[in-house]
Amino acid sequence: MKKxxxxxxxxxxxxxxxxxxxxxxxxxxxxxxxxxxxxxLAEENKKAVSEGGPESAITVCKDIAPSMAGEASRKNGxxxxxxxxxxxxxxxxxxxxxxQKVLQxxxxxxxxxxxxxxxxxxxxxxxxxxxxxxxxxxxxxQQACVACHGTADQISTNVRTRLNEEYPNDKAIGYTPGQxxxxxxxKRAL
Length: 190
Known about the structure:
Layout: H1 3-52, H2 54-76, E1 79-83, H3 90-93, H4 97-111, E2 120-127, E3 130-140, H5 146-149, H6 157-166, E4 180-189
Antiparallel strand pairs: 1-4, 2-3, 3-4
């Protein structure tokens, strides 16, 4: 074996644990961004509903949530967004191929009985622009969200009218509590 090959193998051997440690740190950092975001979003929705009814929550999801995600992205040097397989706003919520695969996996895990509360997934992904650390945290539909995301008979006429005005191509309905509504997705260039 050549001396240079030996050093490359040795370097790779010692780099693997460091990479695993880095991934664990980035997962913790991503979780530390996603969890407060989800909590604040729930608080904003609850406040809006108490002040103006379920129609008011539409403004939270349409305007406040993207603003919060943009702020978190800028502050942390990542891309943070909410994605779904059934999008309400295709400009902001359409999952890329990797995210679609993870969302489908989340749904399969829920179908097998796993609780979505702590469901997340991390991976280092090689892409044309370079490698990225990817993180997703499942968002399960809560009972309060049925007013805008439930079945047709659960959505009031006022909410349905407002949704049709704001989102003429809305696909984000028909959910029941506990189903995967989508996920928080965080992407960090490596």
